[in-house]
Amino acid sequence: MTSRNSQRLGSNRLAHVVLVLGSLVMMFPFLWQLKMAFSSQAEIQSVPPDVFPSKLQWSNFSEVFQRLPFLDQFWVSVAVTAGRTIGQLVLCSMAGYAFARMSFRFKGLMLALVLSILMVPSQVYLIPQYQIIQSLGWLDSIQGIIAPGIFSAFGTFLMMQFFKTIPAELEEAARLDGCNPWQTFWKVVLPVARPGLISLAIITVLASWADLLWPLVVTSSPEKMPLSVGLATLAGYQGTISPGVLMAAALMAMAPVLILFVVLQRRVVEGIAFSGLK
Amino acid sequence: MKARRADGGWPWLFVLPTFLGVGVFYLWPLLKTLYDSFTETGPFGGSAWVGAENYTTLVADAEVYRAILNTVVYTAIVLLGIPLAVLFASLLNRPGLRGAMVYRTLFFLPYVALPTAISLVWRIIYNGEYGVLNQALKVIGVDGPSWITQPWFALVAVALLGLWMSIGFNMIVLSAGLKGIPGELYEAASLDGASRVQQFRAITVPLLTPSIFFLSVVTTIAGFQLFDQLFALLGPTNPVMPKTQSLVFLFYDAAFVGNDRGYAAAVAVLILAVVGLLTVFQFRFQRRWVSYD
Which family is it part of (chain A) (predicted)? Predict the structure, then answer.
């Protein structure tokens, strides 16, 4: 027994070596970014590189707000992410509940139609979606970026699978207490569905914050773009904005999701695992 | 019993918002794109039916083959992230390993980072003159290339970024798979004198094949939709782009830069067909290597 334990300890040491090397590769770009965000242009472009900036360039951060419409883009990202997430939580849980628990005509057909879009790459919808938003006069607007993304076949499917696991006795009891289906759903079923809702919320927040192609085609004015698009289209500015400022902007743009992840780590991991395996 | 219950109009209240939204924003666009792929956009925005012309152009377009080849190379490199993730996830899953939570956080950081923001960071890391990657290579005596301005190196650079970003997701899925393997199997194997490596090959890998299969399907589907990292790392106006572009970039360029909607629709249908075929192929082929018991 002791020999097995010591063998385990010995081999865990090797495991630590491999895992530390792996984590360094994972972490390095973030650390390097942090270093560059505080460096002057000359320091970033110096050969060989300096490991630490000689003097912390806080001005990179203030310059972000002067050189780029960063705050506008930040609020667009927040509004789009909040709008999509709340929209999906409401609509996907309602539809998922009906598909999981209610009986109605054409249910099978409707479910099949909704799920059929799961396998279709998003580019296939893109041009007609753009034309719809254009005819609504919503180009270059927050509602234009949000609109298609509040409806989700994946979210509906996820919530449907979740509601199937909830015991029917709960709803039975609510019905006997005189609740109508909406009250049952709102007061009894949704509170129990919190883990499923949190998973959906986490996935939607991450996807929406990162989304590039759709907001790229819908927006054209820099101050109406979310951060994902604003940063991706910076190539044209490259000559005029110093790399340190770019790094500071990139750091601030990803800070919200990184903080969310570190604070809610277990929930995020469970949410992604839950959605990934269904 | 439940199926017989009359729910009246209530279910419609629950289902209709989503059904209408999906209909308007997804089902109708799907049909519209199929239709559009047989039309040509006129100079004043109208469109005319041109039959299969877009598809014959597509088949004769060297750029399309280049884009498919690029996507294949990209996807193949990102798929290499799966065995790496198997290694890391199984090390992380060892009983009694200290600091597992810390490692997990670090490995998952790239997955939750904003792709377009972290691509800017990599753009500087990859820089040919002062990028830290080439400076590190110089230490071991290698003269690094100008990563993001030479076609094949640029593609590899994009793929390595994709691989780096995907490891965290792969590990989440694999960890869930690892938790499903009963510990008694390892107990029994070690009583029989099987080494760690033998246990890994005889127990861990076979029982992980369903997770590995899932990941290879998801990675391939995502790989053939390469756009974000390519666009953000190289920049849309990078002179190298014609040689490193993906099918989705080709689509984006035709639809929203060249304003050739009909041809773009045909490219979108091609993406749909390729992704569909690859998925069907993977599901067929899985019987040979995935074990579900």
Answer: Belongs to the binding-protein-dependent transport system permease family.
